[in-house]
Amino acid sequence: MPHWTQIVAEKQQRQLKSIPQEWLVSPPPDSTLDVTGFPETCGLLSAREIEITNTSTDVLLEKLASGEWTSVDVTTAFYKRAIIAHQLVNCLTEIFVDRALVRAAELDDHLKKTGKVVGPLHGLPISLKDQLCIKGLETTVGYVSWIGQYAEKNAVLVDILIECGAVPFVRTNVPQTIMWGETYNYIFGRTTNPYNRSLTTSGSSGGEAALIALKGSPLGVGSDLGGSIRRPSAFCGLYGLRPSYGRVPYCGAVNSLEGQDSSPSVFGPMTSSIGGLKTFMKAVVNAKPWLKDPLVVRKQWDEDEYNLVDHGSGKNLCFGIMWDDGVVVPHPPIKRALEMTKAALEKAGHKVIDWKPIKHKLLGDVTRDVFNAGTVEDLMMVTSGTGEPIISTMELDGSEPLLRTGGITAYQLWQLQKLRRDTRKEYLDHWEVTASETGTGRPVDAIICPAAPYVAHPHGKSWYRHYTMVWNALDYPASIFPVTTVDPTLDARIPSHEFYDDFDKKVYDMYDDPETFKNAPVCLQLVGRTLEEEAVIKMTEIVDAALLA
Amino acid sequence: MPHWTQIVAEKQQRQLKSIPQEWLVSPPPDSTLDVTGFPETCGLLSAREIEITNTSTDVLLEKLASGEWTSVDVTTAFYKRAIIAHQLVNCLTEIFVDRALVRAAELDDHLKKTGKVVGPLHGLPISLKDQLCIKGLETTVGYVSWIGQYAEKNAVLVDILIECGAVPFVRTNVPQTIMWGETYNYIFGRTTNPYNRSLTTSGSSGGEAALIALKGSPLGVGSDLGGSIRRPSAFCGLYGLRPSYGRVPYCGAVNSLEGQDSSPSVFGPMTSSIGGLKTFMKAVVNAKPWLKDPLVVRKQWDEDEYNLVDHGSGKNLCFGIMWDDGVVVPHPPIKRALEMTKAALEKAGHKVIDWKPIKHKLLGDVTRDVFNAGTVEDLMMVTSGTGEPIISTMELDGSEPLLRTGGITAYQLWQLQKLRRDTRKEYLDHWEVTASETGTGRPVDAIICPAAPYVAHPHGKSWYRHYTMVWNALDYPASIFPVTTVDPTLDARIPSHEFYDDFDKKVYDMYDDPETFKNAPVCLQLVGRTLEEEAVIKMTEIVDAALLA
Question: Does the beta-carbon distance from B411 to A295 stay under 8 Å?
């Protein structure tokens, strides 16, 4: 067997060859940090292609369904912009232009012949995280050892998206193992943040987030084990949704820690237009995925739940705002975004009360420990295929390596899972008793909180994931919505003060110079009840409208 | 601390004292095997009490709601019959007559004052397996080490049943650890089968089954990890339902192997009248148990699914009959019951085709191995409280002890869980492709199969559980319905033949004398799709009606 570095070199050559030569551009030098304007000024895209790629998902679907725009034209436009994005922030893994365009042409043909769309996503190009197997393509998840493994069939979600009329057109970068909050691996390298390339996109769905932020894709699929849809969406200014376990099919995708059944990873949408959340979820759930994936919950898309029948039909909602989680205090831009959101909601006639977090440290820690129960064995088994090293840091200079702890017994794992289960019950009761404080007769309708204590930060500093991971632990669906961008004048460093502990101070110290984070998107998280995706989407739309009003 | 045998003796004394002296009877000698007639002839029950206890659940609820019968009268009648049953087959653990009658009187009072029922189970006495904690009572699960632990609150399901108007009135016997297919422990001893006390009731919900078979309870709650609702129901001639994971709340109940999240135990109804299945499930699901138990699926009771909208509205159904599982061939009474059911369904206008089992041995074995991953440590931790021995056999003479295997690592457990997950996908696809064979355009609507390769058998021979456990592994809801009883003339031993293997022959040899099993109930199992409880209940009603036609 060749040395792993040689396997990488060959794969990189194949990737390079998959890019049409005529779509190569001259990207700005690395010192140009904000590259969000580049795709529209580089000269590769026509005015019409710029118009198409700036169009929201819902309008795209209307124009595709009416035949005003063909899928070939739409797919070509997004593909070109995706390839530009890749040259700026290194966001793609698998590139398969011909295949996608053949599929798009088939859909155009079908519409022309029958006058009917294939399904609710007819003609729409959709990008996929590098876990969603497509027949005939490799899916490496950043592992050198998985290079050369060509899928014999599509993941179930890919089949369903195709049934719905979508055009899967690129796959996007992840960290080796997926078990990181940033995006770097030996094969495809590091994905950077389009708003500031010295900052991270977060991870593990970091390629997806960077691509969509540059409008190289209207809608993408990420996965979320501890925040991997939400933090990248938040760091790149997108909308994203982490559904509950078993609402979106995972079957046939590849992953780390397979067989870890207790707190599973889930797939969900990431998009630059809010309509994409409902469009994706409704299409996938209406396709009855439980007939293809045994772990999917048999639960129809519920338009009543979307219309908030359990939440006073959406009038006079009561939101709980969590200013901090009692462990790490968020940086000034996050605090400002929470204040803006509170003011906007109150102006729109809704009530906002404080949310008191309980046991967030315990919930995050115990869930991390469940993941770690067999992680080392899992990573060693996979990497033993080629002997590639296991990446131990996301820092540019390799400092602060992560020491992964060894495995535990099944019985010990059960004790962790029992503790998590019991804490879920405490949190459920904690939520229910808020009915006495809201004045609506209902418990708090949704929680609004940070997605992280910071915005996009320099590489290697993804220290704290509990702001997202607690909701995985509790299996609460959670969305991301954009609020503002960092403004060093408005978001000055606050004076040093008392801290929860040294770790809280370490995170505080990261925000030593607001200029470092200038123009970084600031997004927040909206959290609902288990399997209440419909209501979470609608309430996100309500918050978004209030912020834009 | 006193010796464990002394702790047992004291608990036994307390149990004895909880029985009203005036309800003690002179039970027939042990040599009287069939005791099903005894309750009505022993003289303790009045004619009205006999009428009440012979009434179906649905009619009881009507008479209770109309005030024709009071809850005090109904509860008293069932309590007396339950105490008689206990003296015959040793089926009860906790007995709390005063408390139940106070509750019944409150309900009667409420109805008299308001003219309204408290809920859909108003006034109905319900028996509970010895896992469902009731505030102020012990829940030992057959462990000496748990004697003296008085619950500080009700299990969630108990709270919900009370909200629905039910009267929890007794708790019922289980094997030590619950991890047995029979019912015996050091505290309460052995529960025997009312149809033949030399035979087992099966387990672990064996006390519940024996009680209901003697009409000492109209409706009870059992639990099912690998068949513990279904085999006892089948061995005692009852209706029973094993729902999917997370349809009925488990929170706040005690159990073995807590934290084992992959293939959890579930609660479900056991009853002597078929209407009890729907009545229980609809009442519990409509109470929105997901607001009290974080593991319950947010899924309303679906009357459309009950009306079989996904199954051609119940006309011209197509059932798959599984004659054997490819591992162990069932005894002659089971085969006759399958033939009777097939004939009845065809006569009623439905189609019946053969169901081809795939990978049943693998599915059962891997699920057993998941349970065993930490069982030894779990049992040792619990029993270390008093030093009580761990029971290693259900045989009367202690032969054939079970050797439990030691624990494995979390990573090894994940590999088992991954194998089970992948096999679930294979089975799902296997079911879906039957659409090409049914002639209905749909896949097979339900599977009909044995609940075990045998009927109720002599103690200690519960060798094979895969006929139920595969459906736990696949998380398919499954019901039990009665078909006939063993008739040694009709159910003669079949001549020796070729066997799948030695184990198949060992099970064949158990049926050496049909007289051993004379008059034992013969029930079958109906299996549907995950989270399709409503349809499984309706199809069970259809099969039951066809058999009675």
Answer: no
